[in-house]
Model the fold of this input.
Amino acid sequence: MINKLEEIARPYAHAAFEFANEGNNLSQWAEMLQILALICADPVISKALSSPYYNTAAKKTLILDMAGEFIDQHVKNFVHVLAENGRLQVMTEIFRQYHVLQDAAKNMIEVEVCSARELSPAHVSLLQNALEKRTKAKIQLHQRIDPTLLGGIQLRLGDEVIDGSILSKLRRLALHLQLKENVCQ
Done:
């Protein structure tokens, strides 16, 4: 399910990607957008960007001054467009989506694997090979540990979530039993 932030960021991420791709500057744009995303994700900066006390020009100047010479004129123009449309606060999501588009262009998919404990290298390899066969793309796995899952794994491939955790199965069982109990009453 797509949230509002993703929906707002999508056209900007696509525009940045298309422009960078046309100029054969995908990696350079990725680096510059990452710098902007890090700046905008800072709690103090984020608060200033969402504050009604600062006008558009002040917000734009704040970001451009912090980025300095780390961004080129094209990215500065991109910041101007974002500021004028009140979208600077979605910069981290724009960067995330740009990164996904860049990976897709390289036929690479980033997958987050969440498990109750760290997976062995053999399990990681098996999972990676199975996902590469299924998606016909190069898979880059990122592991995250969440002991509340109890066992099994959750996979996140972009917007798709595959939940094979024991916690998920227990929740479905509890819901089923609750529904069955309500029907029997």
Notes: The two ends are 34 Å apart (CA to CA).
